[in-house]
Write a structure and sequence with these properties.
Structural class: alpha+beta
Shape: globular
């Protein structure tokens, strides 16, 4: 488990412009044209099982009630608006610092640390938003983006965020709460693979939804090199011990990424199939009863 978490933690060492030389390197890299990646459409014969907790899970009910998520979504009428409201909520509660690691993916612990003035990495933004979305009945999972040469880089090899399932649109979408950004193609939200392909073929139709002053062109230029390998967690349940196994989506013709930033990846499975990676989750209704929880919160 510690090895699996370590590889994820390294994703957010993202002080990518900490020196002029690094800034120049990434600017030059971003200007290089990136072709649309190709994947298989048919599901894998073997298949992989994704597991999600219903919002009635004690851990999620405690989180929803303790942090007033219903109030945070007040006025949101669609699933996308609920996702946007919670992305803004997470963005405003956490401060980013790519050099710090809280060494926990528990949303209660992350938010307690933030209240004490501690900064977090991108992976913590993703963990808190993933928890918040699942708590209100929107299935969500962490998403880890990795550059094509993430195995040989010593740092800045990727980025971590969230993918959310919109029940009313029956699709996965990408949400980056570190910047409070939802990418849009012709006004519609997209997943990370759709973003990569749109950047290669139709970038002028792309925009962002955000509550901040973030610039869409700057964001797309920065994130584009990381849109090559995509991986997530198979066991996304809360309130229980989970199996630290990931599933990585590989473009056709790409090698298996066996290490990240020169550290071995463990517990990883691999697929070329969009149907497998973006399989619809099992959904459940919202919890109706108010939770009975302690002031100390909970732990995953």
């Amino acid at each position: 488990m510690r090895k699996f978490i370590y590889t994820i933690v390294a994703l957010c060492f993202l002080s990518f412009a900490s020196t002029p030389a690094q800034a120049q390197f990434f600017a030059a890299l971003a200007e290089q044209p990136e072709p649309a990646l190709e994947f298989e459409d048919a599901p894998d014969a073997a298949g992989y099982t994704f597991q999600y907790s219903p919002p009635s899970t004690d851990y999620l009910v405690r989180f929803r009630e303790m942090y007033g998520l219903d109030e945070a979504m007040q006025g949101a009428n669609t699933d996308l608006e609920r996702v946007q409201a919670l992305s803004k909520w997470v963005h405003n509660r956490l401060e980013h610092d790519g050099r710090q690691d809280l060494k926990t993916r528990d949303a209660f612990a992350i938010l307690r640390a933030a209240m004490l003035g501690k900064s977090v990495q991108c992976v913590e933004f993703g963990a808190v938003l993933t928890t918040a979305l699942n708590a209100v009945g929107i299935p969500a999972r962490p998403l880890y983006l990795k550059a094509h040469n993430a195995d040989t880089r010593s740092s800045a090899g990727g980025h971590a965020l969230t993918e959310a399932w919109l029940p009313d649109q029956s699709k996965w979408i990408m949400v980056d709460s570190q910047f409070d950004i939802v990418p849009l193609l012709a006004g519609q939200p997209v997943n990370a693979v759709e973003l990569q392909q749109a950047l290669a073929t139709n970038p002028k139709s792309l925009s962002i939804s955000t509550s901040t002053e973030a610039n869409s062109k700057s964001y797309f230029r920065w994130i584009r090199p990381y849109l090559y390998y995509f991986d997530t967690v198979l066991d996304n349940r809360f309130g229980m011990k989970t199996v630290p196994t990931g599933l990585m989506l590989l473009p056709e013709g790409a090698k298996k990424l066996l290490s990240f930033q020169q550290h071995k990846l463990s517990g990883m499975r691999y697929t070329h199939s969009l149907a497998t990676f973006y399989a619809p989750p099992t959904t459940a209704p919202l919890p109706a009863a108010k939770a009975d929880y302690s002031a100390n919160g909970g732990g995953q």
